[in-house]
Amino acid sequence: MSCPRRRSLLPLLHLIIATVAFLTALFAWPPAARAESFVLLATYEGVITPVSAEYFHDALLSAQESGAQALIIRLNTPGGLDTSMRLIIKDITAATIPVVVYVSPSSGRAASAGVFITMAAHVAAMAPGTNIGAAHPVAMGGGEMDKTLKEKVENDSVAYLKSIAAQRGRNVAWAEDAVRKSLSVTEREALKLKIIDLIADDVPALLKQLDGRAIPLPTGPMVLHTAGVAVREFPMGLRLEFLKTLSDPNIAYLLMTLGTVGLIAELYNPGAILPGVVGAISLILAFYSLQSLPVNYAGVLLFLLGIVFLILEATVTSFGLLAIGGIISMLLGSVMLIKTDVEFLRISWSVILPVVALAAAFSFFLVGMGVKAMRRPAVTGREEMVGLVGIVKTALTPQGQLAVHGELWQAVSELPLQPGDEAEVTGIDGLRLHVKPVSKKGV
Fold first, then answer.
1. Does the pLDDT value for residue 21 go beyond 60?
2. Which of 87, 95, 373, 406 is the most exposed place for a label (fewest CB within 10 A)?
3. Which residues are catalytic?
4. Calpha distance 314→324 (Å, rounded)
5. Residues 6+ apart with CB under 8 A from 24
6. Domains of the chain, residue spans
7. How far is CA 297 from CA 3, 81, 282, 329, in A?
8. Three-class SS of residue 128?
């Protein structure tokens, strides 16, 4: 026979079990839901460099680890380095989540290396008013490519872009023309030619169009559910922003100028310390900047020679010839420093002219100060005694004592001097002064 009290506890026990099961399901669901309810957005504008490759790698890694549905790369680039571009494409190809490249904003572009990256994406999209194309390879090593090398590089780029286009089911024929003929098309032409998949006004519109799209991945097909999902920004970070700024050719030029002038100023003003420290740091940063730019070493030498000429003008009488030669040399070196046909890698004239003018003025000022310091009479030590006037303490016939600067010195004079007379120091021999009379006074 069952106990009435035990029977009365059964409904309460069932209620507790049901409540625990409900709460477990309730709190276990959101993390999984959250893992599928957002996309990561990485925005990049500028030249494709090692900095951009690292940024995209970090963004993709973060998106995969955090459970994002997809990584959207909002891209606006004139192109860049082949090595960095291939690293980015390698990461996209191996991605375990969909990667969407969205050429934006309006008036933006995906040129040169940007064409390869856009076509390598699982989904390629463009905003209205953008363009894509002009993927012809250019020399990035500071020299001209001969005909044979040019053909090899071109054929390699064509084969690479064609394989990417074929892998993503995009227009292979246009991919070849984009490299060989530097073709460029608008977003509507790109969609019509099957170069891209979508045209979207903004990110929310892009997500709406992506909803329900099946994306083939190395791990198998994945269907996106992006309508109304949250968008999380992936910031570049201060370190990468700083390195990106250094990759600008104008910044590299400024750093090289500042570094050179600073070190030379330290040589002409030993012990100043600040110019030397600033110059050394600036030169090291300039070397980092120049490593990813097509540097022409003849331009570097002309630039440095120009600064040397300006410094010599402050120390050598050339009636302005060295100054004129220095300015001309700096201008020629500045123009030749970055040797490339790519517009975005050239140094702007709005930077060159002020820098040359300021470098000339700065060099004249610093070196002039150094020369004045070297020519200034000594104010300490033995040399400072020459020319001083003292009072004779004991008769100089010819030896005696002389008071100078509150100190009593042994002195010798060719002419006899009496105590109280004034005598000028003409030289110093060990601890003995050589003097001559200035005037005589009565004792």
1. no
2. 406
3. 112, 152
4. 12
5. none
6. 17-237, 248-375, 382-439
7. 100, 20, 18, 14
8. coil
**Segment (H or E) for 198:** strand 198-199
pLDDT value at 26 more than 80: no
Smallest CA-to-CA distance from 438 within 377, 391, 397 is with 391
- pTM for the predicted model, two decimal places: 0.68
Q: Look over the chain and give the mean of its residue pLDDT values, rounded to a whole number.
A: 82
More confident residue, 264 or 238: 238
Is the pLDDT confidence value at 437 over 70?
Answer: yes
pLDDT tens-digit profile of 204-257? Answer: 999 999 999 999 998 889 999 998 899 999 999 999 999 888 888 888 888 888
Query: What is the fold, at CATH topology level, of the domain defined by 382-439?
Result: OB fold (Dihydrolipoamide Acetyltransferase, E2P) (2.40.50)
Q: Is the pLDDT of residue 37 over 70?
A: yes
Q: What angle do CA 433, 438, 442 make, to 5 degrees?
A: 110
Could you give phi then psi for residue 433, rounded to 5 degrees? -95, 145
Determine the 3-state secondary structure of 174 from DSSP.
helix
- Quick one: tokens of 107? 């008036």
Q: Cα(43)–Cα(235) distance, rounded to whole angstroms?
A: 8
Average pLDDT in the 172-192 region? 95
Residue 67 DSSP symbol: T
Choose among 145, 150, 157, 55: nearest CA to 115.
157
Residue 295, token pair as written in the block = 């540097």
Tens of pLDDT, residues 279-303: 889 888 888 887 767 677 788 888 8
pLDDT at 364 over 90: no
Q: What sign results for the dihedral spanned by CA atoms 291, 297, 303, 304?
A: positive
Query: Given the structure tokens 């040129």, which residue do they identify?
Result: 111
Specify the pLDDT at position 120.
96
Residue 397 is classified by DSSP as: S
- The per-residue pLDDT for range 96-121, each reduced to its tens digit, is 999 999 999 999 999 999 999 999 99
> What's the CA gap between 132 and 27, in Å, rounded?
46
CA distance 401 to 214: 106
Q: Which CATH class is domain 17-237?
A: alpha beta
- Contact between 133 and 174 under an 8 Å Cβ cutoff? The reply is no
185: which residues sit within 8 A by CB, 6+ positions away?
Answer: 131, 132, 133, 174, 193, 195
- Parallel, antiparallel, or unpaired for β 399-404 and 407-413? antiparallel
Backbone torsions φ then ψ of 49, nearest 5 degrees: -135, 180
